[in-house]
């Protein structure tokens, strides 16, 4: 009679082990396509990856990244042009050239937002993000994913311990109830 709480703990522990085993080895593999489709729907409908990627592309600060490169390329272009034109080194020097370089640079930098929008649209159209996500999710073996999640002894032991605690608690309540009834 006094062993009822211990048997309850054992039953709770075994129940959790059986539920985990059934989930990993039967329920998930048998419903893999349905689970994968639900994951795909969650990602595509709730997260809207195209909008996220488009927004991230638009948040890139191209001016700070392109400005120094543009300066180097313009300097190289003018230097190269000056070496090919007679007296080019003399003509293509001084404040006139610097103003021209700044004007060209400013025009290019002002066109960056339009280029960013164009790039964001190309990313959306050229990379079929929905198809990529579907392909990746469908390639997952959910049984392996579930096994790796529960491989961690700590997580599994915590769940088993919780099952044992629940079983022990219910059995202890049942034991106290039987004692109070005079059994």
Instruction: List segments where confidence is low: pLDDT < 50 over at least 5 consecutive residues.
Output: none
By secondary-structure content and strand pairing, the structural class works out as: mainly alpha
Strand segment count: 0
Series of secondary-structure elements, N-terminal to C-terminal: HHHHHHHHHH
Cα-atom radius of gyration = 34 Å
Helix content: over 70%
Rough shape? Answer: rod-shaped
- Beta-strand content: under 5%
Treating each run of at least 4 consecutive H or I residues as one helix, how many helices?
Answer: 10
Largest sheet: none
Q: Mean of residue pLDDT?
A: 84
Number of domains: 1
Walkthrough of the structure:
The protein has 183 residues and is mostly helical. The chain is built from 10 helices and no strands.
